[in-house]
Design a protein that fits this description.
Involved in peptidoglycan biosynthesis. Transports lipid-linked peptidoglycan precursors from the inner to the outer leaflet of the cytoplasmic membrane. This protein is mostly helical and 267 residues long. It is built from ten helices and no strands.
């Protein structure tokens, strides 16, 4: 593995790790009753994710370009499989870190409510006392989290399945567009701009069906209309379906790339 590929894998890991940790901040919002504050603080991590995302695409594109031009020889299919595997690994790690990040996020939300200053919050986190608190926030998932994976009538099966498919498309969208350039190099520039063909479907599913359902469930828990136990059960399944989506993305990479190539030729 060369340095460029290692850097791409690291960026992919960060992007999907932060995406998974969004559930921890949602849980923290429920525990503290301050959902808006929790999601606002999560935006700090979103900035890191978007910065990583802005570098990931160009680095992957450069790898494909050098292979097409014969400047360097890469096993592109293997490289893209590793990138998708990095997304799956990040989702697993993120899921394991949910209890730890949930505790740290809850403390951050409560602390932020005092002076409402993000710079002060970050400065306190970097003090010995703040670092000590973060270390003591470490916790592994309870065994109950595994038993929550059992099917039951209380699970929104349709939403969970849609989350699998949406995350698969979301994970593979940009990668398929770039990989399409290696399948038909003369249309590689056009293909690289067509990730929205795949991501568009994922965006609709995530922001029209999945996210509104989770938002409504979160509000119901805060108002006492739903139990915290069911909420956590659904969250465990959402993380599991997100992981399943990154695995499914391995199968969708090549078909999605060929669809993008076809569109690039006919438009």
């Amino acid at each position: 593995m060369d340095l460029q590929l290692a850097f791409i894998l690291a960026l992919t890991f960060v992007i999907h790790l932060i995406g998974t940790l969004a559930y921890a901040f949602r849980i923290a919002g429920v525990r503290t009753g301050k959902i808006a504050t929790a999601l606002s603080l999560f935006n700090i991590l979103v900035l890191i994710s978007r910065t990583s995302n802005s570098f990931q695409g160009p680095f992957i594109a450069k790898r494909v370009e050098t292979d097409i031009l014969g400047v360097a020889s890469h096993h592109l299919m293997s490289d893209f499989s590793l990138i998708l595997a990095s997304a799956s690994l990040a989702t697993i790690v993120g899921g394991l870190l949910i209890p730890t990040v949930q505790r740290a996020a809850s403390a951050a939300v409560d602390s932020f409510s005092g002076d409402r200053s993000v710079p002060r919050l970050l400065r306190r986190a970097m003090t010995p006392r703040g670092m000590h608190a973060m270390v003591h926030a470490f916790a592994l998932p309870h065994r109950a989290s595994l038993t929550a994976l059992r099917f039951g009538k209380d699970l929104p099966v349709g939403v969970i399945l849609l989350n699998v498919f949406a995350n698969a498309l979301w994970t593979v969208g940009v990668l398929a567009a770039i990989y399409a350039g290696s399948l038909d190099p003369q249309f590689r520039v056009t293909a690289s701009t067509l990730s929205s063909i795949v991501n568009g479907v994922a965006t609709i599913l995530l922001f029209v069906i999945v996210d509104p359902y989770l938002a409504g469930l979160t509000d119901d828990v805060v108002r006492g209309k739903e139990t915290d136990q069911r909420f956590r059960r659904v969250v465990v399944w959402m993380i599991g379906s997100r992981l399943a989506g990154t695995i499914l993305a391995q199968l969708l990479l090549v078909p999605s790339a060929y669809v993008i190539v076809w569109v690039a030729r006919v438009i």
